[in-house]
């Protein structure tokens, strides 16, 4: 009985049949699979997002309370605004840092950070 290497040397390792299989079946299948997986990325819905307002780490507010304080809500839907925030100012008086939030509709600005 001949060994595998002997058989492969007689048969040949890469001939026209292998090229046809590679170019005709394997390459198109791989390309279509990759396209299908990438299409899924573009069909996913956009998650809820809003501005990041710096300064929460300097307060004792929870994340939800900080969002309610610094991000306005849309009047029609009641959701947090995705592109607007209230003007937030940090002031220092006699070594104490205090927070001033201008949370009226005229005090909103585009996302700053």
UniProtKB/TrEMBL annotation:
Transmembrane domains' residue ranges: 21-42
Domain of life: Eukaryota
Sorted UniProt keywords: Membrane, Transmembrane, Transmembrane helix
Name used for this protein in its record: Solute carrier family 22 member 7
């Amino acid at each position: 009985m001949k060994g595998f290497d002997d058989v492969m040397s007689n048969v040949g390792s890469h001939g026209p049949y292998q090229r046809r299989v590679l170019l005709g079946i394997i390459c198109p299948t791989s390309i279509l699979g990759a396209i299908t997986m990438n299409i899924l990325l573009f069909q996913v819905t956009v998650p809820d997002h809003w501005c990041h307002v710096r300064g929460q780490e300097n307060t004792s507010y929870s994340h939800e309370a900080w969002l309610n304080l610094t991000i306005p809500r849309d009047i029609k839907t009641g959701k947090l605004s995705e592109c607007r925030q209230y003007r937030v100012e940090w002031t220092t008086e006699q070594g104490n840092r205090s927070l001033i939030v201008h949370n009226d509709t005229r005090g909103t600005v585009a996302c700053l950070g």
